[in-house]
Amino acid sequence: MASLLLLPFKLIPVLLLSSHVFSSSSSINSTEAEAEALLKWKATLHKDTQTLLSSLWDGSNHCNWTGITCDRTGSITNLSLAGYGLRLRGTLQSLNFIYFPNLIWLQLGKNSLHGHIPPHVGNLSKLIFLDLSFNNFFGSIPSEICLLKSLQVLSLIENNLTGVIPISIGNLTNLSYLFLSANVISGLLPENLCIGGVLTRLTVASNNLTGPIPSSLRDCKSLYRVRLEGNHFTGNISDAFGIYPNLDHIGLSDNNFFGELSPKWGQCPNLTSLLISNNNISGKIPFELAHATQLGELDLSSNHLIGEIPKELGALKMMSRLFLSGNQLSGKIPSEIGLLSNLEQLNLASNNLSGPIPGNLGNCSKLFNLNFSKNDLGGGIPSSISNVIALHSLDLSQNSLIGGIPQQFGKLKSLEILNLSHNMLNGSIPEAFNDLHGLRIVNISFNRLEGPIPNLKAFYEASFDALGNNKALCGNATGLRPCVLPSRDNHSHGMRTKVMVLAVFLLFCGLLLLYILAASFHICCKKTPTRKSETREKPHGDIFTVLGFDGRKLHDNIIEATEDFSSDYCIGSGGYGTVYKAALPTGQVVAVKKLHQYEDNMLINNLKAFESEIVALLEIRHRNIVQMYGFCSHPKHSFLVYELVERGSLSMVLSNNEEAKELDWTKRLNVVKGLANALSYMHHGHTQPVVHRDISSNNVLLDSDYEARVSNFGTARILKPDSTNWTSLAGTYGYIAPELAYTMRVDEKCDVYSFGVVTVEVFMGKHPGDLLSYLSSSTTHVPYDQQLLLKDVIDHRLSPPRSRAAKDVVTATKVAFACLNGNPQLRPTMQQVAQALYRESLPLSTPFSTIKVGELLLE
Ligand SMILES: *[C@@H]1O[C@H](CO)[C@@H](O)[C@H](O)[C@H]1NC(C)=O
Ligand SMILES: *[C@@H]1O[C@H](CO)[C@@H](O)[C@H](O)[C@H]1NC(C)=O
Ligand SMILES: *[C@@H]1O[C@H](CO)[C@@H](O)[C@H](O)[C@H]1NC(C)=O
Ligand SMILES: *[C@@H]1O[C@H](CO)[C@@H](O)[C@H](O)[C@H]1NC(C)=O
Ligand SMILES: *[C@@H]1O[C@H](CO)[C@@H](O)[C@H](O)[C@H]1NC(C)=O
Ligand SMILES: *[C@@H]1O[C@H](CO)[C@@H](O)[C@H](O)[C@H]1NC(C)=O
Ligand SMILES: *[C@@H]1O[C@H](CO)[C@@H](O)[C@H](O)[C@H]1NC(C)=O
Ligand SMILES: *[C@@H]1O[C@H](CO)[C@@H](O)[C@H](O)[C@H]1NC(C)=O
Ligand SMILES: *[C@@H]1O[C@H](CO)[C@@H](O)[C@H](O)[C@H]1NC(C)=O
Ligand SMILES: *[C@@H]1O[C@H](CO)[C@@H](O)[C@H](O)[C@H]1NC(C)=O
Ligand SMILES: CC(=O)N[C@H]1CO[C@H](CO)[C@@H](O)[C@@H]1O
Question: Where, by residue number, does ATP bind (predicted)?
Answer without folding.
Answer: 594
